[in-house]
Amino acid sequence: MHRFFRLVRDLSPWIALGLAGALGAVYLRPSLLPHRTQVSDAAVKIGPAAAPSSPAPARSAATVSYAQTIARVAPAVVNISTRKVILERQLPEQFAPWFPDLPEFRRREESSRGSGVILDAEGHIATNYHVIKGVEEIIVQLRDGRTAKARLVGTDPDTDLAILKIGLDHLPVMPLGRSDQLQVGDVVLAIGNSLGLGQTVTLGICSATGRSQLGLALLENFIQTDAAINPGNSGGALVTAGGELVGINTAILSHEQGAEGIGFAIPVNLVRGVAQEIEAKGRVVRGWSGLGLNDLTDNAGNPIAGVQIAGFYRGSPALGLGLRPGDVLTALDGAPISGRQDFFGRIARLAPGTTVKLKGVRPGAGSFDLKLGIVARPIER
User: Fold this and answer.
1) What tens digit of pLDDT does each residue of 154-180 get?
2) Catalytic residue numbers?
3) pTM, whole model, 2 decimals?
4) What are the structural domains, with CATH classification, of the chain?
5) Which residues pair with 191 in a beta bridge?
6) How many angstroms separate the Cα of 316 from the Cα of each of 195, 354, 368?
7) CA-to-CA distance for 42 and 242, rounded, in angstroms?
8) Which DSSP state fits 194?
């Protein structure tokens, strides 16, 4: 027994040292203890309510959402990237002879972005004419990530529309609605490549229909909306809450004008007709008078009815009729002319070969009447 106590006495320091080491290890590594459940830092911070894992709550039946509409139509809205080369003069023309070794011009590439809408399974895409005007390359990107180089089928500057074509299979197609059935107050969604961020959706209502005399295009019959439209949205889709295309977004009134929430879209009924004619003929044939005209204003600068002839284009059917610059035209086929856009728009809607009656006044010589033959508008180069 005496030997046992002596052994315990001799081992006690080592036993104490081992116990101290074990306690230190457990303190630093709690996971060493058997059957211990670890609790994450996040669970400790959040509290007991977050500890059990539970499925996300079901959406309320009263939730107002356009998610299904967007999921159905957004794949048919594409991003359009364009590229063109611009020649810039490096030296003023008068200095060029003094620096014969320095190139007079330099080439600079300029790129821009817009949007488009796939109209059919064959790959025809509607966009704005100003999106692709003068560009050398057009690249289309679909929402699913596919890209393709687009071919320009034709343009209609009078309505600011252009039709492209891509050669991809299994394309999503936008359902076409009826813009003549759109009413002020109807909910609309604008979809496009806003500010180059990628596809973006905004919500608003139809604020007005039949907007014209805005100076945005020759033939104007715009849908007005307060759905946010930004640079890059041009050529994108304006759709109903039910998912039907009612317009092609084309322009906004700038903040510099004090405007807020005023955007415009080309009605789909007009888009449908232009697309069909471009696909069939490569262009839209419109009437042309060949007259260069100016609007009239009173002494206070306010517009007044009528237009004044400023000149004649080459090949104008008006040449040889005795008209002169300075003559004022007051009526077309018996209806008063409100301004140059009104005159050009009415002539453009006429078929080539049509004859119209013009009524006018020559300052200091009195009034006159004559007949003017309408021809097809020359192709814009």
Assistant:
1) 999 889 999 999 999 999 999 999 999
2) 130, 160, 234
3) 0.70
4) 69-165 (2.40.10.10), 179-281 (2.40.10.10), 287-376 (2.30.42.10)
5) 201, 237
6) 42, 14, 19
7) 43
8) G
